[in-house]
Amino acid sequence: MTTRERIKAIQKMPKTMKEKREIRNKVLMEKTRKSVSYSTEIHCCTQCMYKIALSYRRFRNGLSELFQSLQLWQKTLKIIGGKFGTSVLSYFVFLTWLLTFNIFSFLVNFSFITIPQFIAAGSNNLSFTGLELLTGAGYFQQTVLYYGFYTNSTITKIENSTSYDMQLAYIFTIGIYFVICFFSLVYSMAKSFRNNFVNPHTYSGNAGKLLCIWDFNITNEKAVRLKQKNLSTQIKEALSEGKSEDLNLSLKQRMVHIAIHLAAWIFSLGTTAVCCTCVYYLSINNLKLFMKGDGTELENQAATLVLPIVVSLLNLLTPFIFSLLELLEKFQYPRNQIYVTITRNVILKMSIIGILCYYWLNIVAISATECWETLVGQDIYRLVVVDFLFCLLGSFFGEFVRRIIGTKCLKNLGVPEFDIARNVLGLIYVQTLTWIGIFFSPLLPAIQMIFFFIIFYVKKVSLMMNCQPPRKVWRASQMTTLFIFLLFFPSFTGVLSVVAITIWRLNPSEKCGPFRGLSSIFDAVSRWIDVLTNYPRSAWVVWIYHNLIESVHFFFILTVIIIIITYLYWQIIEGRKIMVRLLHEQIINEGKDKMFLLEKLRALQTSTRDTPARKGASQQFSTTSSLYQPPGQLDQQRHLSMPNYLERPLEKNKSTFSATPPYTADFPERSGFLPGDPQRQHPSTKPGVSEALALAMRARQQAEREMEDEDEEDFRS
Amino acid sequence: MGNKQTIFTPEQLDAYQDCTFFTRKEILRLFYRYRDLAPQLVPLDYSDKPDVMLPYELISSMPELKDNPFRQRIAEVFSEDGEGNMTLDDFLDMFSVLSEMAPRDLKAYYAFKIYDFNNDDYICKSDLEKTVNKLTRHELTPEEVSLVCEKVIEEADLDNDGKLSLEDFQHMIVRAPDFLSTFHIRI
């Protein structure tokens, strides 16, 4: 084993620290003994490798320590988790994670694009009024904030030294950033799926999760008591639900349900469509006003703010309409309700962004404005700023005012809970806008970074002051997986398509930006490749470009290979599922065999002792043959007082029950039972053994019959 | 690395690093937390491996544990003497298993031991009843508690012996992906 594997194996051992240390020391001694006994030649090699491995390990440890010291807000996260549990904590962890994307983008853009621009900067003739912070226009138009300000020249600081091609820098910086984001998102998504994804087919019943339900993160006394109260309420509800059978809805009721669901979906999709058309016509109007340019400067700038305000209002209010809809729809499982809510909200937000992108790419880009990229950048800036302000307002009204209302005026409303889904979707929306805006406004991630910082603290304070811990079960891991997936698709993939269209299809403006004068932005790369063909040493770059990036065949073959591999993996998974099911059945069968054999042996032992038969006990014992009970008189009392539970296995094991009379008929003298010692050999067990085997065979058949019954139940539920 | 600490020898620190999921800094930070519980009992020099054991009352007074309904079982499971009195080794071991980096199987093993009140390697019905009572602060009636426990055994007991073995428990954990994030104490 390599050193790393060895360390991992030791760490994973469920033994005390002393034992682990002894094992580790023993292994180390073995290794040094072995390495000493080798010849010197091999010793040198392994010594080199060992040194390299050691220094690499030290480097990794140092790096991980550095990352940990950089991790922001560890104490704050601990306090939040302690008071509200893992579910609310997942929102803040998500926020921190998105923040790292923005910090990384800012660092990359600032160092590779903005700093060179400062060196070759033009002058800024416009005056600064305070309104720019809100509208992004005016003074900011001629700063590094927007695409339009960047030069298309190659920058040389000192004569005859290497030059810095701004065009290539712009494309490559942003391109490489998106590639890194892509891989990072795919990795997070895959890791999350692997750890947290539960096959819905194996989901059967809640009771078994009782042992996994306690949240050890909660450290606040009040929160612990609240959680305990919630748990007892949940258990009581589950017990009362369990007593009443599953809703067997009549056909008519089911049709009514489906009709209500369908109507709700049509209504929500219709609302989304109305919002989108609203946004579209408003934005076209906006452009017309901007092109005409009447009115004072102030009026013009104020008019530009109408679109973002309308968009943010729609984003804030329409989810409330959706939640009112859900009060009418009655979902059978709360899980479905959450998924439906999230789906509707995601459709709404992504449609609005989609319409805006269509407007920007198809209408603004072809319009006769001087610098359309800067216009788009300003639009996105305004959207981001106004959304931030509305987020603060929403927090104020949604939580603070609601708490005042809930505690002072309408006392039965109570203190609000922190709405995790709505807040996370808001974060995804804003991050999508930021990613789209990176191309048109390279410093937008810096602004978003500041906003995320402020939002973190505002939400934290609002949470501590105004909210109570969540009452319902919120499956934090599955929800986090879902949110990471939503961040990747449709959010990030949408961003990639928008940027791809911008780079490949659209004409950059003539008079501004680093790509002025080119027919498409990607031309810069083609021109660079053409320049490179003159240098024989870079022939491999040219080869890669012509044969891998530009050729269609390569991508086609790659796609086919990936599809084949995906299909193979899918088939392997299906095979493994079948295997798991078979093994599961085998375990159940083994257990039942064991049970029957044990009973049989016990019965044989007691029958040869001639103890007086306790007929009553034996009757009850035969009816609960599938349950092992500890010996003692408590059982009888429990049987008498627990009719409910007895009925349940009777229904489930109807086949066993019908099979037991012949079993008891064979052994009428069987009485209570002793804590039987199955290893005690008895002379009468010899003839009994073959019968026991026959019983085992019967038990297996019954178990198979039971598996069929269980399958039917699974399909029904 | 420029470590000027004099509490542990470098070999000891390496051993701790290899046996737990913590880095050097975290191990030192945890040592200071351990020491803060009883500064007069815990020496600042561990290089001669002193035999110091903090009583259960001090451990259970830590803010991370003091309101946890299972704190006594946690301390008992990880302590050497089984009574809850912990040495530094036990302390580090406990927080290592309860940290983010510990794998699911390790956590499942220790969670099983925590819920196994009578230490017989099986979670039987009485263990479950005690667990449910701790989870709900004795708010359920005994009949309800019994019913719940029977339901749990019914659902989770795969080999039908009326009690949960470690394999049953691990099988249950697979269906509860939240376990990794809830069986976690930040320190």
UniProtKB/TrEMBL annotation, chain A:
Transmembrane residue ranges: 88-108, 168-187, 258-282, 302-325, 346-368, 380-401, 436-458, 479-504, 552-570
Cellular location(s): Membrane
Gene Ontology terms for molecular function: mechanosensitive monoatomic ion channel activity
GO annotation, cellular component aspect: plasma membrane
Topology class, membrane: Multi-pass membrane protein
Swiss-Prot/TrEMBL keywords: Membrane, Transmembrane, Transmembrane helix
Source species, domain of life: Eukaryota
Biased composition (Low complexity): 691-700
UniProt keyword Zinc present: no
TMC domain boundaries: 371-477
Protein name as it appears in the record: Transmembrane channel-like protein
Taxonomic source organism: Alligator sinensis
Gene designation per UniProt: TMC5
TrEMBL record, chain B:
Entry-linked InterPro entries: CIBP (IPR051433), EF-hand-dom_pair (IPR011992), EF_Hand_1_Ca_BS (IPR018247), EF_hand_dom (IPR002048)
Gene Ontology molecular function, alphabetical: calcium ion binding; magnesium ion binding
Pfam families referenced in this protein's UniProt entry, alphabetically: EF-hand_7
Keywords: Calcium, Integrin, Magnesium, Metal-binding, Repeat
Residue span, EF-hand domain: 103-138, 144-179
PROSITE patterns reported for this sequence: EF_HAND_1, EF_HAND_2
GO biological process: calcium ion homeostasis; integrin-mediated signaling pathway
Superkingdom in the source lineage: Eukaryota
PANTHER family, A to Z: CALCIUM AND INTEGRIN BINDING FAMILY MEMBER 2, CALCIUM AND INTEGRIN-BINDING FAMILY MEMBER 3
Name this protein carries in UniProt: Calcium and integrin-binding family member 3 isoform X3
Organism of this sequence: Alligator sinensis
